[in-house]
Specification:
It is built from six helices and three strands. It is an alpha+beta fold and 169 residues long.
Length: 169
């Protein structure tokens, strides 16, 4: 497909929830997170009076684990975009709020985007990565990146993630 076809496909592809299978091998990850979010949440549900899910998307996965009527699954805050927001800062904020961090981990992994359509779809779905993303506004950069990708140079992006659990003291 050429540039215009890849962009059109990316803008027209329906996407809901947190299922990235529509990308196939157009996006690949080098490594994976050393924790399983679903297991972390599921293990805590039976003894939790309340749960707060931040920075995992729209809350669909957590909502799917709850009994109907027990939660609305809506995010309470947008993902944190401050570069200084890391595991240390999050732990400090929770401890200052009177919570005790009981478990924490952090990891980094590299995601490779093999074509411009996959990148545009990803940025459309994960809107907090580039909050003002608009294909028209980024046209020249996207075209240059498309040419590089077509020349065998995919885009590699490294993500730093952390997870933690906390309880009231």
């Amino acid at each position: 497909m050429d540039f215009a076809e890849l962009i059109q496909e990316a803008l027209a592809t329906p996407f809901e929830g947190w299922d990235f299978s529509c990308f196939g091998n157009r996006i690949t990850d080098d490594g994976e997170l050393p924790w399983d979010y679903e297991s972390l949440a599921r293990d805590r549900l039976p003894r939790a009076a309340s749960l707060l899910d931040l920075g995992t998307g729209g809350g669909e996965l957590l909502a799917s684990l709850l009994d109907p009527g027990t939660g609305d699954g809506e995010p309470l805050a947008p993902p944190h975009v401050d570069a200084a927001w890391d595991l240390t800062a999050a732990t400090s904020a929770l401890e200052e709020a009177g919570l005790k961090v009981t478990w924490s981990r952090e990891a980094a992994f590299t995601t490779t985007f093999h074509d411009i359509g996959a990148l545009v779809l990803f940025l459309r779905v994960i809107s907090w990565q580039v909050p003002d993303f608009d294909v028209r506004a980024y046209d020249s950069g996207l075209r240059a990146l498309h040419e590089a990708m077509e020349g065998g140079h995919p885009l590699k992006a490294t993500a730093h993630r952390f997870a933690l659990t906390a309880t009231g003291q």
